[in-house]
Amino acid sequence: MANSRAMKAAKAHAAAGSAMNALVAQQWHVWHPLPALHCVPAIALILAVGLSMGEPGAALAAAGGAFSVGFGGFQRLSRWRLTPMLLAAAGMAISTAIGTVSSNVALLDALIVGISAVVLGLGTGLGTGAWWVMLQGSVFLVLAGAIPGDLHEAINRALLVLGGGAVQCACVLGIRALAPGKFAHLVPPNAVDPPGSWAEWRAAIARVLDPSGPEFGYAVLLGVAAGAAAYLAHAIRLPNGYWTPMTVILVLRRGARETLTRGMLRIVGTLAGAGVATMAMAWLKPSPEALAALAALVAWAAYSVQWVNYGTFSACVTAYVAFLFAFEGLPEPVVVRHRIIATLIGGAIALLALGASRLPRLLRR
To answer: Which of 99, 121, 148, 277 has its CB 3.0 to 4.6 Å from that of 322, i.e. a possible disulfide?
Structure first.
């Protein structure tokens, strides 16, 4: 009995040490500052054009599309390297249009967010590239709920997101053509390749749709948690509440340790990025042109550290969002505070959902 307790204590200590290491470890061997540069010109161009035309709101939407599509340059879905970027741009635009309209009705919005999250959960069995494309659609569906609108507004926003993604694709294609040896095709560490043929795609889809499979159970859990988070944000009128379901989508994983680690890293990263951005704007008091430069700088940082550490990456993304909102004249400290609160609630929902899914198994012991 004593030996058994000692072994359990040793395992718990080792698990805690592993989780702490994941929180603080920075994998600098996968820091890629040079390849990250080829995704930045599109963002700088869009913000510069938005400034010159006096349309900061349009520039914010288009730059958001360009920023997310840029990460597709580090994914693989087919032999053509632009495939993930093009599919993501189209999916993001469609999701933006749907989310803008559906977010007018809380229950409808929660249902659509939940369905999108189910599809995303199933996508975990289709390879990293396919999952990433689905993730962008889910994220922009939730983002669109920040400002509900009618069909006309939905189409306008979708076109801005699609335009930003198209500019990013064009810039990446042009830069790679001009300097083909400088931008190697990098993919995420431990990336799972997509199916190699139509027959393999059909087999993979049939596998993830099997109710007894691990992907199906996880997809249902993710859908219920994300839908509940979206509805709760509407019900309590949480400012910038779209960060709540987004946190669930980004944090909730099959394993408790990975979910907890990602949740903690996201919270820490959000706090760090918000603090740095707020202090930078208070100290520098940047002009709109300087804000655009700061946004481009932290966008490059996000691309370059995306695999170094999730907390570091989250800090860069938070700073980018803060600079973009300030670009349109929104009060960044208020926006950041709202995001932190919504992130905490979303992280709590993710952990509760994971705990509830494990409860029947624990009761059977």
So the answer is: 277
